[in-house]
Write a structure and sequence with these properties.
Blueprint (H helix, E strand, L loop, with lengths): L1 H23 L16 E3 L20 E9 L4 E10 L3 E8 L6 E8 L5 E6 L11 E4 L7 E12 L6 E9 L4 E4 L3 E2 L6
Antiparallel strand pairs: 1-2, 2-9, 3-8, 3-10, 3-11, 4-7, 4-9, 5-6, 5-8
Amino acid sequence: MKRCLQVLSLIFLVASVVALPAGAQTPPPNTNPGFGPATGSGFRPSATGFPFPPPPLFDPKVAWKDMWVCRAAGPAEVVGFRVQCPMSTFLDFHIADCCIPGDHWQLKGKAWDNNPNTGVTTAPGPAGVFGVPGRAYNYVAGGGVLDAYVECSYLHGVNVFLADSFVFFSSDGACAVTPDPVVRRIDRTP
């Protein structure tokens, strides 16, 4: 009986050691570890430590710009940003994948006024490369407030989560960005 227990203990020990490396392996990070929330959200990166890629090319009329991070905890999450720009004629938004080449992200922005309009852009795929801007226009007579909602969503890619993307907003007027809580749904904004 003692010999049987020794053999079973040895088998258990060997099986534990063999299984440990496979179970301890973690996928490569698709975020900037140590920064931001541990769930999906939109957040402003800290001034130090969060390495943003070189900024995209901006319209020469740009007077304001701001950078954010879009973090998804799964493929069905949509991160929203309300952007309000008094006396602005346009809002541009750019997106780039953060960390693992092969992820594709989308930004969809919509401005609601008498003439609602929508702009869409995607990240081209290589990490740290911004796509062309999406743009929402302000058609309010006399300048009014451009009130837009911009949604960030993960289209497809390597499917390692948490996953980050870099977002740049820019406009010809000063704007205020307010992130919304993340919602789990398929991107459905028309």
